[in-house]
């Protein structure tokens, strides 16, 4: 447990030092989301209708672009070897690195999301559900992405491969993430909002659990073979 | 384990391949001809879908193969990671392009069937979507396998990906049950036996058999070819080293 | 003649059905053909290389026998 | 001779489809030094990676304190400290932060200062690591050895970039480690002067340099 | 002129060698575009309505991600200094590099666009206009992006800055690019399609001309100071 | 003594807000070798970067062939070849491609083969560069010297990672370069044996080691 917190705190400190690591994902998120009103025209109804999809797709892309960061720098400067050798459990170490990634990428995205949602005329109830869905969904994005990050270490052009490997695996999260908000927006009575969104949120939780199980195992196996 | 090591020797494996291959090819050709004949001449048009049902005899076997080959790759990957047997890596590597080909066929023939039936080339329902994801997984698998200078690293990375991606297979299979979709629910591979008329079931099964043996034949040839390539690489290296 | 036309039009689904079958044939054949081509290329190269190594060995042997 | 600590029998290493070395054996007793020698590409770094458990040998056995550890590198991994060609230094962190992270010690631990002092790095304690010269970086990496307290040190060309005075410091540190019962295996091209070392030259096990080994692998089964 | 072709051909050869450079932008384009139907739901009408916007935004992002490539690798390995020293005119050299970038990024995008358009149920006339608009618009994307690429050379984390600098400058291209197709889709008579789209296409052409003028000048100045 | 090639007067270098060296002068004639010595952090690498024009000295003048080049590094930049700590090798390219990519020569040029051969890298010609051992990478970087035909070589610890035989090759190559009228400046900690070298020890110019210099910068205006 000590090792876990140690890794998380070190990664956080690194991210805070090189501030741009922190801002990059959010900045990309906000700028890209703002392109859509320009591309689609300013009809409020249309924008509100597609807002959940746009926000999720943009969040997905922002996470995608920061995935290479999780392990690549450590791999290149030799820290990864030290990590593998010094950690009692590689699985725990991977979870720690993913947590640090989520704290520096997913969490800022969640904080920026209401802003975008307001720009797109989403109503408050939908925004609440959006936040809950993102809280459940973005950790899965970091977890699944970490697998791709470890698999492409040392590959000829790892950065190109990551989208190809990761986007197909992100699709379920996207579908249920959007589904939850759409369900909330379509429910006529106020009380039914949560009830309607619940199945989608449960599925997001299930994805999170599955990836919490798979990522440490697959990631540890991938890391070990990357260092051979 | 012991069965596995029976073929551990590449030469023994090559010998086995050479005796088996003619039979496999023969079965492929015979069942393909029989299947096609039945598909076009003995099977009746569907009472709802008319003649267009004849696309089924390639669409469904292709879809089966898409899932079957991915499953084989995942199994081979488990073997490769646990026992580190090179044959498993070779099988996975040789299977991926064939699987991608069949997945493409399932998508393309499905689209060609969907246009007259549903009025659209493509709809975003769960079955179709998950097959599309499968196609991307195949592409990712092939790309990852070739992304490393060292073949062994590529094999290992691709194996891990194949196992992770396997979660998609049950989703494809059961998507029609879990979500209400445009696509037909299962009518052949069901727990309570097939619910399809024998006059259509037989050609379908025979075509399925033909596709499976086609896969086996191409797979064996590909592995053989890879083995020869390994030998070539070794000779070349020896020549450089001794020079 | 009519029968043949009938057969090919497939109750107006001909275009879809035949495209599907032709596409399938193309994909499966190209899988087979590329595999076979690769096999033949490799086999030819292997033979060439083996001959080369044989002759290298023989000339080596000759040198060795000639020396003493 | 002392008690046996770590030994390998008949190790063969394959990398990139090539035999790097074949049939290598070594033996390390407690409180002793093993120096790996051999020309470039003879497999010193590869051997060290095998001994650190990062890489697996294709064949052969590894024994740690009379226990077979061939398939369980974890057995010895927790007793070793490995320093490779790369220094694992984060440029944005200070010298002290870099050290404290990997040693798992607290930032204010006096052991950190002691470790830095042994390599004469104390004046640079609060310097960001991206301002270090190459020799200073190497010294920072080496001072982790002292902060981590492992039994066996595996060092890959530890003296690269060090000036003469720092090589002396390194030699002193190694001697101290031997006195406290530790052992060291290192690869080097330039002389490092330690007490009673055993030497292993990898030249004779490498097909690249020893032609007698080239045909050995012809009979072997080849798959990949 | 000889120097121009020399640079173009060398860059093209490098891109062909590392095939993934070529496929990266297209792959990202296709995969990202496919995310939207998952995110927005499968209503064919909605998809067709927003298809032009989606396609343009996605194309924009794909170009954006490849911008760092134009000059950064050359800067880091010192070829840029060679280029500056050996070229008669730095402006021509920059145009050559931009052309190579467009050939390896913009052109593949244009070829992939009809496929995406079909998946989104766009009709053939709209697709024609889409292609014309992209032919006029994507070169501007490469040109404008090249300025940002040169400006961020040597900045501590140039990659983060590029989106910030470039996305605002891309917005006019986006607006007229989408406008052309929307105009085509909304025209009721077949003959009016081109006529309706023409003003937008002309504006796209004007943007292209302006950026053709500005990029070499701004780029050359930025390069010189980056190499100081 | 021969004709003057490159000289510096009273150079002062500031990096990271610190004086690295103060008031350093050097003089290099044609066909000669200048060896930079000094402990870690004394500024050898910094001096070499100044001489390659990558870094500017805070004060002082540089003269190339009797021409003042302090503010126009282009004057000497086109005559030098610089090899730093990093090997600048593209891992995806093969050894041969790496060499030809940098030297601007055609892939099939026999000069490439000659250059590789001088450092005994010809057998590895078609190996991807990421499979090289550390000494092999360094030799690949060094063989660029031969393919590029520049007058002055600036080498930062060129013998790092080289085995004894390769250091011999390097010495031979430097001697050859001197014979054909070239000059070399290199920094090193381990002995490299070349003909009639001039030596410059940076210790005495570095405030880190020479206490007399510490107060010197106190008076100076400090902005950074
Ligand atoms: C691109 C579109 C399509 C895709 C990706 C697709 C995919 C699949 C897959 C994966 C299966 C195998 C299911 C299993 O074994 O459980 C399947 C079976 C089947 N498909 Fe499609 N399909 C598509 C379009 C269509 C269309 C348009 C029709 C007919 C209107 C159709 C009719 C069938 C039938 C009848 C089966 C057999 C079901 C069974 O007996 O188990 N498919 N398809
Ligand atoms: N990551 C790798 N993948 C595949 N092969 C490698 C890898 N690293 C090194 N090799 C090969 O293994 C052989 C031994 O390399 P190694 O690094 O162990 O040599 P070394 O003795 O440490 O040499 P040096 O003195 O140059 O450091 C070399 O011929 C090299 O080509
Ligand atoms: N990029 C940099 N930015 C700021 N300061 C630096 C930088 N690189 C080195 N320094 C500082 O400049 C001083 C001289 O470093 P330099 O690398 O020139 O030393 P060196 O003589 O080459 O040492 P070594 O023998 O260790 O290679 C060091 O004290 C270091 O702290
Ligand atoms: Mg080494
Ligand atoms: Mg230095």
Task: Describe the secondary structure blueprint for this structure.
The complex is a heterohexamer, with two copies of chain A (228 residues), one copy of chain B (243 residues), one copy of chain C (68 residues) and two copies of chain D (224 residues).
Chain A: H1 2-17, H2 19-40, H3 44-77, H4 79-86, H5 90-119, H6 124-151, H7 158-186, H8 192-226
Helix pairs in contact in A: 1-5, 2-3, 2-5, 3-5, 3-6, 3-7, 5-6, 5-8, 6-7, 6-8, 7-8
Chain B: H1 2-6, H2 10-42, H3 56-83, H4 86-118, H5 126-145, H6 151-165, H7 168-178, H8 198-242
Helix pairs in contact in B: 2-8, 3-4, 3-6, 3-8, 4-5, 4-8, 5-6, 5-7
Chain D: E1 4-15, E2 18-29, E3 33-37, H1 44-51, E4 59-64, E5 67-68, H2 74-77, E6 80-83, H3 95-103, H4 110-118, H5 134-148, E7 152-156, H6 164-179, E8 183-187, E9 198-201
Parallel strand pairs in D: 3-8, 3-9, 6-7, 7-8
Antiparallel strand pairs in D: 1-2, 1-4, 4-5
The complex binds protoporphyrin IX containing FE (HEM), adenosine-5'-triphosphate (ATP) (2 copies) and magnesium ion (MG) (2 copies).
Short characterization:
Chain A is an all-alpha fold. Chain A has helices at residues 2-17, 19-40, 44-77, 79-86, 90-119, 124-151, 158-186, 192-226. The two termini of chain A are 27 Å apart.
Structure description:
The complex is a heterohexamer, with two copies of chain A (228 residues), one copy of chain B (243 residues), one copy of chain C (68 residues) and two copies of chain D (224 residues). Helix content of chain A is 89%, strand content 0%. Chain A contains eight helices and no strands. The radius of gyration of chain A is 18 Å and the shape is elongated. The relative contact order of chain A is 0.14. Chain B has a single domain (20-183, 195-242), classed as Four Helix Bundle (Hemerythrin (Met), subunit A) (Up-down Bundle), CATH 1.20.120. Helices cover 78% and strands 0% of the residues of chain B. Chain B is globular, with a radius of gyration of 20 Å. Chain C has helices at residues 2-9, 14-66. Chain D is an alpha/beta fold. Chain D contains six helices and nine strands, in the order βββαββαβαααβαββ. In chain D, the strands form two sheets. Chain D has a five-stranded parallel sheet, sandwiched between helices. Chain D has a four-stranded antiparallel sheet with strand order 2-1-4-5, with helices on one face. In chain D, strand 7, helix 6 (164-179) and strand 8 (183-187) form a beta-alpha-beta unit. The model of chain D has no long low-confidence stretch (mean pLDDT 87). Chain A binds chain E through residues 18, 20-21, 23-24, 27-28, 31-32, 35-36, 38-41, 46, 49-50, 52-54, 56-57, 60-61, 65, 156-157, 159-161, 163-164, 167, 170-171, 174-175, 178, 182, and chain E through 18, 20-21, 23-24, 27-28, 31-32, 35-36, 38-41, 46, 49-50, 52-54, 56-57, 60-61, 65, 156-157, 159-160, 163-164, 167, 170-171, 174-175, 178, 182. Protoporphyrin IX containing FE binds at residues 56, 59-60, 63-64, 106-107, 110-111, 113-114, 117-118, 127-128, 131, 172-173, 183-184, 186-189 of chain B.
